[in-house]
Fold these 2 entries.
Entry 1:
Amino acid sequence: EAEVAQSPRYKITEKSQAVAFWCDPISGHATLYWYRQILGQGPELLVQFQDESVVDDSQLPKDRFSAERLKGVDSTLKIQPAELGDSAMYLCASSLWAGGLSYEQYFGPGTRLTVT
Amino acid sequence: AQTVTQSQPEMSVQEAETVTLSCTYDTSESDYYLFWYKQPPSRQMILVIRQEAYKQQNATENRFSVNFQKAAKSFSLKISDSQLGDAAMYFCAYRSAGFGNEKLTFGTGTRLTIIP
């Protein structure tokens, strides 16, 4: 069964350093999402892509976070500089888009970031 | 903005018994989707069940069923014949039906423990 791939699974970085996460969605899924899940809370959307275009990045802290999906397939989320409050699980999800409808979101295993 | 509330941070149930997880939501929209997702420890989030708001019939998936009360904005999950593998965090989530607004809004989750 096809799955959403994410790497790395775990990342420890020092405050003020740069960090990047990678996501490879299920083949054929045009919609890709990055969520942040702080410990003890539910995930919150950071950015949504439709193919290579950003559909929603209203909750993305643009002064330090950036996201790209250059060829409309895999995606990278970057944080520079990292802050202590960025410690969280970063989840990638993808969904099929067909006939004007968006289908269920499938989640990857996540990248757990610890900022020291 | 939509909100999702899960008022039970933790629940426990004896193996083979039935448990109900509660969820309420707030929205001014008439057309939307509701979901229950399961997040096992150190594993990816998976979809348990989905409900379309326009459908009056409650969704069921094997041992999982929902009680959808649209007027009360309530969406509870019932797990019958609980199994050890059901132990996980359970998240209730809301999604608008409109195009370009496919993000999931999650509750804070309920940690379900299965007692052997």
Note: The interface with chain A takes residues 4, 35, 37, 43-47, 50, 91, 93, 99-104, 106-109 of chain B (CB under 8 Å).
Entry 2:
Amino acid sequence: GENVEQHPSTLSVQEGDSAVIKCTYSDSASNYFPWYKQELGKRPQLIIDIRSNVGEKKDQRIAVTLNKTAKHFSLHITETQPEDSAVYFCAASTGNNRLAFGKGNQVVVIP
Amino acid sequence: DTAVSQTPKYLVTQMGNDKSIKCEQNLGHDTMYWYKQDSKKFLKIMFSYNNKELIINETVPNRFSPKSPDKAHLNLHINSLELGDSAVYFCASSPSQGGVGSFFGQGTRLTVV
């Protein structure tokens, strides 16, 4: 089955700087790649997703890039703010089976 | 209106007891899921139902039994609770199989003492 790995496990950034989290996946048939944000004690929330027919997608300060050849995708957060502090999960799916989640990245934005 | 609602939000119970968690979604989605999130925050899928039909059944002890009376509801019954069952259980739903656009409930924190 699909195996998704996230790096780094913890990322600390100064407020206003950019944060980048990278995920790798194993199944070349995967075609859907979402990112979820989970604040402490809250539910995972879908913040952005990308399909395999697109290389990049942006939504305000958040962007996701996909490299199908290398089988990795990344979350980019620009102009980080304290409310960006959370655990971020990447996931991958072939579209007809399950979402395979990475183990999560703790992002800490230092004011 | 809460899109995916779980009850209860917190559950504290003794070892050996049987308990149920309920989940309802009003998004009109066809597929529902149960995930377990342990203390290390890892999200592990347990079960998935598509239009009341079980489509994913991970390696979960048979003390866990899901039931989907209709496509808007997915309940989880746990028999003979053990200490290791302590975790946060999330219900989620998506328009179709594959988890695309999955929306999570607020979670049920289960503590077995």
Note: The mean pLDDT of chain B is 94.
